[in-house]
Amino acid sequence: MTALTLSTAGAATLRADAIVVGVAKGARGPVVAPGAEAVDKAFDGKLAAVLETLGTTGAEGEVIKLPAPSGLKAPVVLAVGLGPVPAKGEAYASEPLRRAAGTAARALSGTKKAGFALPVDETGDIEAVTEGALLGAYAFTAYLGGEKNAKKKGDNGPKLPLAEIALLGAKPRDKAHKAAVERAIALTEEINRARDLINTPPNDLTPEAFAAVATAAGKENGIKVQVLDEKALAKGGYGGILGVGQGSATPPRLVRLAYTHPQAEKTLALVGKGITYDSGGISLKPAGHNETMKCDMSGAAAVFAAVVAAARLGLRVNVTGWLALAENMPSGAATRPGDVLRMYSGKTVEVLNTDAEGRLVLADAITRASEEKPDVIVDVATLTGAMVLALGNRTFGIMSNDDAFRTSVHEIAGEVGEASWPMPLPADLRKGMDSPIADIANMGERMGGGLVAGLFLKEFVGEGITWAHLDIAGPAFHEGAPYGYTPKGGTGSAIRTLVKLAERTAASA
Ligand code: BES
Ligand code: MN
Ligand code: ZN
C-alpha cells in the first residue's frame, strides 16, 4: 500500500520523482490551482500559458506530464484537471479534489515518490486529497508475474502503485490536519482491502476463505468474530443460506463481526450479500453474464470494511456486521427451481429462480440481525440487474421502510462523494411474489425487479427496526477504463457511506 505523509517541504525543494499540481478550467483558459505557487514561479509564472499551449483545458480527467524547470528539485511536474474554477469566494469541492488526486496517483504508478501540491485550504480538502490519492494508487497485483515474481512488476499487467506520497500545504503538527489524514488512511486501507477481496478469483475466495480473512482482521482490530459453518447453520435452521450454498463444493458461512464501544448508545447492524460466485445455480446464467460474478460478494466486503474502519477509528457506536457467504452453483445437490426453503425466520420461500439467491441469504442474515434489536439495519448487496438498468453503472439505489432515513442515507452518500438515488418500495409489487404453496416466492414481476427484491427483504426486517437496502449491483465492479480514483474491477462501493453513517450515528447519540 502506498504510504502518505504530511510534509512541510516546499514544492520547489521536495526531493521526489514528480510534483503534482492542479489545473482548473477557467473562462479564459486553464488556471493553476492554489498550492502550486512555487511551481508556477519556477515556470516564471507561465505554467498556465504552457499548459494551454499543450492543449490542457483543466477539465476533469486531464493529466499531463512536463519536464520540470531548473528551479524544482523534482524532475517532472504532473498537472491534473480539477474541472471548472469554483465560483468567487468558494473553495474546491471535495469530489473534484478526490478524483484529481486519484487520477494523478494512478498516472504515477511505477514511480517511487511524488509531492502533491493540490489546493488544501481546509481540513476536508486534506481528507479528500488523501482519500483520492490512496484510492487512485490502488492496484491488484496479487496474481501478476507468476509464482516467483508474485507482487513484482508484471510485464503484461499494471505497474506497481506509486510507493510514497508527500502531501504538501498541510500542517503535520496541526491536530485537525493530522486527524483528517489518519481517518483517510484507515478508511482507504479498508476500502482497498475490500477491493482485493472482490478482485480475488472465486476459486481462492471461497466462503470459508472469506470467513478466515474476517476472523484474522477481527483479532487484529479488537472485533469479536463468530463464524457459523454449515453444521451450525443447519442446527440453527438457516434455510436460505444453506439452500443457496448447497450446490457448491465449498460450503456457506454466516459471519458475525461485532465492534463495540463502551460509551456507545446506539447499535448499527450492517448486513452484506456475500455470494463468492454467482453462476445463477440451476437457473444458470448464460455466457456473457457470469464472467464478473466473483463481484457478487461486494456487499459483504463493504460491510466487513466498514466494521473494521469503525473499529480503527474508535467510533462511539456499536457496529455489528453480518456476512452472508455462499457460492451459488448448479449440481446434483443444488436447490432446484420449484423447491421450497424454510428460512431462519420460519417463513417458507418457493424458489422459482435460483439466480435470485441474494435475497435468500440476506433474508436469513437480516432476521438474525433483527434478533439483537439494533437501532438501524442497513443491508448492502449486488442484488439485481434491474437496478443497473434503472440507475446505470455508477449509482446505487437506496430503498427503506422509513422515508426520512432513506433521505439521510442518500444525503450522507452525496457528502462522501458516492452517487446514489432513493428508490420506492411500491406495495402493489408484493402480490407478484405470492406463491400457491409457500409464504412467498423469491421472484415477482420482472418490471421493477430491483424494487421487488427490496420488498422481499423488507418482510424479514424485525418489527419496528429502521432499515435501508443499498443495491450496489451497478457501481460495485467497474468494467470500463479507470477514472479518477476508480480502478478497473472492485471499487469498494458504499464503504464511505457506511462509515459516515456510523460516524453520524455516533455523533447523534
Ligand atoms: N448477482 C445478481 C445481480 C447482478 C447483476 C449483480 C449484474 C451485478 C451485476 C443477482 O443474484 C441476480 O442474478 N439477480 C437476478 C434476479 C432475477 C432472477 C429475479 C437478476 O437481476 O436478473
Ligand atoms: Mn443471481
Ligand atoms: Zn447474485
Describe this structure in words.
With 509 residues, the protein is α/β, with parallel strands linked by helices. It folds into two domains: 3-173, Leucine Aminopeptidase, subunit E, domain 1 (3-Layer(aba) Sandwich); 190-508, Zn peptidases (Aminopeptidase), CATH 3.40.630. The chain has helices at 37-42, 47-53, 94-107, 123-136, 175-199, 207-221, 230-236, 239-245, 298-313, 358-371, 385-391, 403-415, 449-458, 495-508; strands at residues 3-7, 18-26, 29-32, 63-67, 76-84, 113-117, 164-168, 224-228, 253-259, 267-278, 318-328, 340-342, 348-350, 376-381, 396-400, 420-422, 440-441, 466-471, 477-478, 489-490. An eight-stranded mixed beta sheet has the order 8-9-11-10-14-18-15-16, with helices on both faces. Strands 1, 2, 3, 4, 5, 6 and 7 form a seven-stranded mixed beta sheet that branches. Strands 12-13-17 form a three-stranded mixed beta sheet. A hairpin with an 8-residue loop joins strand 4 and strand 5. It starts with a strand and ends with a helix. 56% of the residues are buried. The model has no long low-confidence stretch (mean pLDDT 96). Manganese (II) ion is lined by residues 278, 280, 355, 357.
